Amino acid sequence: MPPDPERNDQGQSKGVPRFLELRSSKGFILATVCVAIFTDAFLYGVVVPVLPFSLRERSGVPEDQVQWWNSFIFAVFGGAILIGSPICGWVADRTSERSISFYTGLIILGAATILFGLAKASWVLLISRLLQGLSAAITYTVGLALLVDTVGRDNVGQWMGTALSSSSFGLIVSPLLGGIVYAKAGYMTVFAMALGLILFDIVMRLIMIEKKAAQYKPALDTANGFYGTFTQEQPSEQEPQSDSTQAPKRQDHSQEAPLLSDEPHKTVPKKSKMPTILVLLGIPRLLAAIYGIFVNVSVLAAFDGVLPLYIKSLFQWNSLEAGLIFLCLAIPALTGPLVGRLCDRIGPRWIAVAGCSLTAPPLILLRLVNHDCLEQKILLCGLLVCCGFTLILIVSPVAADLSAVVEEKERADPNAFGPGGAYAQAFALFNCSMAAGTLFGPVVAGAIVERHGWGAMTAAMGIFAFSGAIPAFFYTGGWIFAKDG
Asked: Cβ contacts of residue 194 below 8 Å, gap of 6+?
């Protein structure tokens, strides 16, 4: 028997890869996606406290230009995600294995990190952040679509909550660690920390086997007795079709349908002529989901942009103390899996509404933190913890609802998206919304603080957070006035 196309990219030229069941299990794929998302989020945030210093000390940027270069470099990161995400989603929905795109993102991320470590010129830092933005576009778009492919729809809220809580945790804890490591050990140690995390990410992604590929492999080896669970697929693909004995088997498709339901090569009707992205953007329920994540990320990014500077001037804290305050936001982010499980049980609507509505009061009350004393520091920490717990209520429901939108649209109109589906492109829009939030939050919050003060900024962010509850109330989980709603 000639060498089989046994996924050489998985490290085996013939036979079944070692530990196939473990490497293609839901738990391992979830862990891989979480590590990938955490790594991208961590590498975005770890430079927040480092970049202003490295621009001046390593790149020789004049003091009066540091703010411009700092903002421009972060804007390039967000712009790369905005442009790259729809392209990545389109490609991922048209490839047989999403892991191919996943590996591409890994290569780009490695190149970006090496450039970051070696860069001295400001334009090299710019290229580094551009590549990192492209990597983030691939990782979030393909990773979340891969997760939906793996776990199915029944428990998607819990699994999505786990994956996206790793993003929130990475965004929040990375400035903390970046500031501490840079203050204590210098720039190259920050680079070494980032490189170590990437190496771990590389190992996880290379070990992982996509579930579709795992189902394909055993089907090819049934003659050797491997994984007999999948042997029913082989007769229809390999036995001679002219044999009259095949007729009874072909008539019993009802028994084979469950096994073939996940097959990536099944025939479906042609897709509609309208581009998939436009079809998705015409669904109000999907727009409510991407607006919800836009609100969530904008508020978190606003904290990145204004909180360290404000508490530095108010409490005279150094970079270490300013970084530690982000623990108040990071610890609540760990409750994401619990929120996702609750979402699976009671539905996404009221959790998302509660998240947006309850985020507003602590944001507005942050205006009370306006002078230096112990009570004010305790109040700041308490309000930030409240924000952390309420913000995490937004992420899981809207992400789970996004996959439900695609599923229901495909059920209602099988021609809507074509054979590749639209999960990757839906999460590309989700990713674009996150990228827009990383641009909108710091810029708007910083401008309000500069012109109108801290109190006006907290009030504006509180009202903005509450605005997310309106579309969530009407559309998350389906139109609220629908007969089944």
From this structure: 42, 43, 46, 113, 116, 117
